[in-house]
Amino acid sequence: PGKKVLIVYAHQEPKSFNGSLLKIAVEELTKQGCSVTVSDLYAMQFEPRATRNDIVGETSQNTPLSKASGLQSPHQFPLFWFSMPAILKGWMDRVLVQGFAYDLSKAYDGGLLQDKLSLFSFTTGGSEEKYAIRGGIRCLLWPMQHGIMHFCGVKVLEPHICYAPKHASEEKRKEMLTAWTQRLKTLWKEEPIDCSPEWYFK
């Protein structure tokens, strides 16, 4: 309670299932007394390309992410081609920069964002069984959760995955939304995953 939360939202359509998950997160976390900021990347027309114009002056500490005192995210997004949307990857490239999120001598458990939590909440186009054919969906999360978040020192919570909501019944979609609401109620009591290879590839 009282924590500052930044939600990074990457979906083009506000009325999408991802939009519903975002709305629930904002409402529930606000009820808990959190101060919630949403970075809606598409609505902001966020520039995902890291260019030479980004490399100017000192690294700023006056950003929504630096001010977030609790959950850095949920990152709310649809899974595109076994990864995050390009606009969200661009946000990672441009925001989680050296000197702010990590340094050459300060990474992983010693990363500069050790006081942050991250949670990847996303939807898929395929069923859970489809992702189990080649080792399970956790393998896909290795570069996102471990290679980016954990590298910067961020503590990573278990991902929240809604499988194939487009192909689910209305009742099943409601169950997914209810499960997300219930998880948010006890989110602050969760322990981070260990981010070891065993978690992803067991």
TrEMBL record:
Alphabetical list of Pfam families matching this protein: Flavodoxin_2 (PF02525)
Record domain Flavodoxin-like fold: where: 3-184
Originating species: Oreocharis arfaki
Keywords per UniProt: Oxidoreductase
Name this protein carries in UniProt: NQO2 dehydrogenase
Gene3D superfamilies: 3.40.50.360
Annotated signal peptide: none
An annotated Gene Ontology molecular function: NAD(P)H dehydrogenase (quinone) activity
UniProt entry tagged with the keyword Oxidoreductase: yes
Gene of this entry: Nqo2_1
Gene Ontology CC terms, in alphabetical order: cytosol
InterPro entries xrefs: Flavodoxin_fold, Flavoprotein-like_sf, NAD(P)H_dehydrogenase_qn
Entry's family note: Belongs to the NAD(P)H dehydrogenase (quinone) family.
